[in-house]
Amino acid sequence: MNTEVWNIFSNYLEEEREILVYKPSLLDNESAYPTLYLLDGDINFTCFSGIVDYYIRTYRIPPIIVIGISSTDRRRDFSYYTSFKSSNSTNINFGIENFTKFLKTELIPKVESTYNIIPYRVITGHSLSGSYVIHLLLNHNYLFNSYIALSPFFKQNFSLLLDKARMLYTSKNPYRLFFIGEEKTSDERFLNTLEFLKVIKKVPNIETEYRRYVDADHMSIIVKSVPDALDYIFPGTIQDR
Questions:
Q1: Arithmetic mean of pLDDT, 103-128
Q2: What is the mean predicted confidence (pLDDT) over 105-129?
Q3: Which domain holds residue 195?
Q4: What percentage of the chain has pLDDT greater than the value 70?
Q5: Among candidate residues 158, 1, 156, 18, the one with its CA nearest the CA of residue 79
Q6: What pTM does this model have?
Q7: Residues 6+ apart with CB under 8 A from 205
Q8: Greatest CA span in the chain, whole angstroms?
Q9: Which of 107, 176, 182, 238 has its CA 20 to 30 Å from the CA of residue 228?
Q10: Is the pLDDT of residue 90 over 90?
C-alpha cells in the first residue's frame, strides 16, 4: 500500500503527533479525493487502510485518502472529564476542545494544502474515540460530512450527549451521515444505545444507521463493521461501474 508518515507539531496539543497517510495507488495530480480521518491511527491504521484499499481496488468505494492520527493521551483528547468515574462539572477536561482545534486549524488545513481534496470529510473512531466522534457530530457538525462511531464509550457523558442531541431538534443542521456499530454488550449498555438512537434519529438532517454484531467483541468490531460503514458512507460505487 502507498503510505506516508508525517510528524506534525501542534501548538494546541503542545506535542508532536505522528500522522499516517494512506494514498490510493491510482492517486494523480488531476483528480480530487475525499478524506477519511481515523482516530487511534497507531492501533487501527493498518487494519482500516487495508480494508479501504481492498474496497477501492474492487470498486466498492471511490478512491479516498485516509489520515490516521496516532494517539498519545486518549483520556485527555477524547473524554469530557478528567476521570472516567466522574461527571462532576469541576472535573471538566478541556483537552477535548484543544484536540478539536488541532483538527480544525492545524491538521485539516495541512492535509488539504498537500493533496487535491474534494470537500467531503469522514471521521472515524473506536471506543473512547468513538464517543469523541459523537461529540463532533453534536457540537462541531460543520467539520465533517460523515461520522463513524464504533463501539462508542457512553458511560461517562451519556446524559450530556442526550441533552445536546435534543437541543438539535430545532436547529438548522447540515445534512450528515452517521454510522454506529456495536458488538454484543451488557443489557445496560445496549439500553443506553437504544435510548441514544431514539433521540438522534429525531434530529433533522442526520441520517443514522445502526448495526449490532453479536459475533464481535470490543476489538474485532473494527474488522466486522468497517466494510458496512464504508458501504453506508459511499453507496452505489460498485453499481456505477
A1: 95
A2: 95
A3: 2-240
A4: 91
A5: 156
A6: 0.91
A7: 173, 174, 175, 176
A8: 55
A9: 107
A10: no
Assign residue 76 the CATH number of its domain.
Answer: 3.40.50.1820
| Residues with Cβ within 8 Å of residue 152, at least 6 apart in sequence | 125, 127, 130, 131, 133, 134, 180, 182
C-alpha cell at position 81: 472529564
SS3 85: coil
| Pairing status of strand 206-213 against strand 176-183 | parallel
Long-range own/partner contacts, residues 196-204 (CB < 8 A, 24 or more apart): 196/154, 196/158, 196/161, 196/162, 196/165, 199/162, 199/165, 199/166, 200/165, 202/169, 203/165, 203/168, 203/169, 203/173, 204/168, 204/169, 204/171, 204/173
Q: Which three cell numbers stand for residue 50?
A: 487495508
Number of domains in the chain: 1
